[in-house]
Amino acid sequence: MNERRQNLTPEVVRRLTVDPHPWLSCDDCFRLVDQYVELVLDEGALAGEQMPAMRAHLAGCAACREEAQTLLALAASDRGLVANEIDDAQRVLTN
Amino acid sequence: MTAISRSAGSRSVPVVETDDWVARLSTPGPGRDAALRQLHGLLLRAARHQVARMTARNPTASTLGAERIDEIVNQSADDAMVALLGKLSTFEGRSRFTTWAYKFAVLHAAVEVRRHAWVGREIPLEQSAEPWSSGPTPAEYSEAAALSAAITTAIETVLTTHQRQIVIAVLIDDVPIDILADRLGSSRNALYKTLHDARDALRAQLIATGHLPSARSAAAR
Is residue B12 classed exposed, middle or buried when 0-12, 13-18 and 19+ CB atoms within 10 A define those classes? Predict the structure, then answer.
């Protein structure tokens, strides 16, 4: 057995079974991600309801999620948010 | 100063720019030169932030030396500047200009760090998913083992060979999607579509076997 695959972690299960709908491409995610991170900062969890395709894409694409997290941190910093506020926004972004 | 508003649900959220970036960057003269320098500074900040986050979290990326990191940051900011200026006419004011600008540097820096982290590393494309097991308690162990077995079976039986290879590489072996796309002569978009379709197939099978709730039963809970 391949040693790397002896454990199916909860994270791997999540990656494999996350609902990928509504469809959004990586290119469209890039086009919308600045709008989405600001919506997260403005509206919190409501952002995912207003842009469900962005929420679904970030849940399913690790590369886009990694980049969105940095963008959120930069935008939050520009707004003068403090660390715990940024952490809260990051949790919304990745849930 | 420009101030615009966009609708965000039930309330209007003001988006205030400290300067009219598009006009400054589009009008030849000393103002444009100053705007370009200011913009480049923002892109350097964003690229540096992305590289710092990735080197802090990724053991392979953390081996990049300070000199190489500086090269990546500067090259990413330069490349982002070119990309951004080529897309300047598409900025619609749906976010702050600075947030819109940052994303170009973040993307270029992230892709470059991943590329460096995977230089010289082979990516074997696995044909077969083997069973796993996990779970700290007997009950959880049993449930996790059953789900693992069901997922393994689904990967083996409902996915095409191509879907199986991409799913195993990206979702199980943690190969970055852009690195795999580059090695396969494909694109990030194309591989994400493969993952999308594969997840649809896996979820349908797991719902059919009772290992995942259907959308209807999940909504009722």
Answer: exposed
User: Which of B134, B173, B193, B216 is closest to B201 using CA atoms?
Assistant: B193
Do residue B188 and residue B94 come from a single domain?
no
- Quick one: tokens of A67? 């980049």
B214 close to A (CB below 8 A): no
ipTM: 0.93
> Do B94 and B7 share a structural domain?
yes
- Which residue range is the domain that position B44 belongs to? 2-117
B contact residues 88-127, partner A, Cβ 8 Å cutoff = 94-96, 98-100, 102-103, 106-107, 110, 114, 126
- Distance to chain A for B202, nearest Cα, Å: 7
Q: Are residues B70 and B108 in the same domain?
A: yes
Percent of chain B with pLDDT over 90: 67
CA–CA dist B177, A60 (Å, integer)? 11
- Per-residue confidence (pLDDT) for residue B1, from 0 to 100: 37
**The whole model's pTM is what?**
0.87
Helix (H/G/I), strand (E/B), else coil: B8? strand
- Looking at every residue in chain A, the average pLDDT score rounds to 92
Q: Does B45 touch chain A (CB under 8 A)?
A: yes
Residue B104 sits in a domain of what CATH number?
1.10.1740
Name the residue with higher pLDDT: B55 or B131.
Answer: B55
Whether residue B130 is contained in a domain is answered as no
Looking at the structure, tell me whether residues B86 and B184 fall in a common domain. Answer: no
Number of domains in chain B: 2
